[in-house]
Amino acid sequence: MRFDPDVTLSVLKFLGFEQVFKNSLTGLPMGGAKGGANFNPKGKSDREVMRFCQSLMTELHRHIGEDTDVPAGDIGVGGREISYLFGQYKRLENRFVGSLTGKGLTFGGSLVRTEATGYGCVYFCENMLNHAGDSLQGKTCVVSGSGNVAIYTAENAIELGAKVVTLSDSSGFVHDPDGIDAEKLVFIKSLKEVDRGRISEYADHFSRAKFYAGQRPWSVSCEVAFPCATQNELSLDDAKTLIGNGVLAVAEGANMPTELAGAHAFVNSKVLFGPAKAANAGGVAVSGLEQSQNALRLSWPREDVDTKLKSIMSDIHQKCVKHGQANGYVNYVRGANIAGFIKVADAMLAYGVV
């Protein structure tokens, strides 16, 4: 579910198409769909957002359900919005079921769901590097965005020994040459998740950091790049800049953040390029695990969910390698597309003419 001024029917159709293959890659029993509205929650009060979510769910509730379509968060739809949507669903349906995922922990949510897309993206990147005989340890990383995906991508990369030097939002990006450590990340979480402020305030608070208004972070030299903001944020010119600066791996945390020409440039230059349908499948994977917990009326410990997430991302990586390896290089785009398609095609053939 996406709330963004750029949402159109064609965008949702394409994202839904991609979602089918992403969900297929997880190995979980899920189809795929996409929905949203061109409502912009930025600058709106909590009450305005609540009223919109309630109005939307008043129509949507008849089309969704725990065994039909199960919405989860995307751009503009975080914990606040999911809570309002679920509250209205429960009021209208008079049922407490796993009809949405990304819920709060006090009403059926799963541990690690908030972190899942970012954590999963880093686990996938680590798998790519490990397969090539390397790791994230000691690598300089550039991350775009400063929402859930970007924040928890940065957090997990830091935990695995990487040095994250950028974050961004729609106003520009900050570059911290000293690296964004765990303490600084606490400030960013408060800034973006509580105060809903701008990333420029990070540079006001930490003197060594510099804010670049209206720019994206791809000019900063790095070994690993994580585009985690929005679609089409990384152009061909950006890709050429990253390649020229010696980037080793790119893992897409956002949905389709790299333009097609940029993706081709990475593959042609033999950069380890993890496409969104594989690299950011961690979010929907833990959504599936949340559905399982709701159905069982159980709540699994954090360590159990994180272990399952790691395993799912490792399995996705293995599928990509199986179908994408040729001449000593793994084309993860090809591998993800083929692996995702095969499962969907097999199921459709098994159903017969319907």
What does this protein look like?
- This protein is of the alpha/beta class and 354 residues long.
- It has 3 domains: 2-105, Leucine Dehydrogenase, chain A, domain 1 (Rossmann fold, 3-Layer(aba) Sandwich), CATH 3.40.50.10860; 116-279, NAD(P)-binding Rossmann-like Domain (Rossmann fold, 3-Layer(aba) Sandwich); 286-351, no CATH class.
- The protein contains 13 helices and 11 strands.
- It has helices spanning 9-26, 46-60, 79-93, 116-131, 148-159, 182-194, 200-205, 236-244, 260-268, 276-279, 282-296, 302-324, 332-351, and strands spanning 2-3, 36-37, 140-143, 163-169, 172-175, 210-213, 224-226, 249-251, 272-274, 325-326, 329-330.
- Strands 6-5-4-3-7-8-9 form a 7-stranded mixed beta sheet, with helices on both faces. A two-stranded parallel ribbon has the order 1-2.
- It is globular.
- Residues 110-352 form the Glutamate/phenylalanine/leucine/valine/L-tryptophan dehydrogenase C-terminal domain.
List the helices and strands and how they pair.
Blueprint: E1 2-3, H1 9-26, E2 36-37, H2 46-60, H3 79-93, H4 116-131, E3 140-143, H5 148-159, E4 163-169, E5 172-175, H6 182-194, H7 200-205, E6 210-213, E7 224-226, H8 236-244, E8 249-251, H9 260-268, E9 272-274, H10 276-279, H11 282-296, H12 302-324, E10 325-326, E11 329-330, H13 332-351
Parallel strand pairs: 1-2, 3-4, 3-7, 7-8, 8-9
Antiparallel strand pairs: 4-5, 5-6, 10-11
Give the total of domains.
3
Order of helix and strand elements from N to C terminus: EHEHHHEHEEHHEEHEHEHHHEEH
Tally of extended strands? 11
Cα(first) to Cα(last) distance is: 28 Å
- State the CATH architecture of the largest domain: 3-Layer(aba) Sandwich
Give the low-confidence spans: none
SS class: alpha/beta
Q: What is the tally of helical segments?
A: 13
Proportion of β residues? 5-15%
CATH superfamily of the largest domain: NAD(P)-binding Rossmann-like Domain
Radius of gyration: 20 Å
Overall 3D form: globular
CATH fold-type name of the largest domain: Rossmann fold
Helix content: 40-55%
Oligomer: single chain
Sheet with the most strands, sense and barrel status: 7 strands, mixed
Family: Belongs to the Glu/Leu/Phe/Val dehydrogenases family.
Binding site for NAD(+): 117, 148
Binding site for substrate: 19, 22, 73, 287
Subunit structure: Homohexamer.
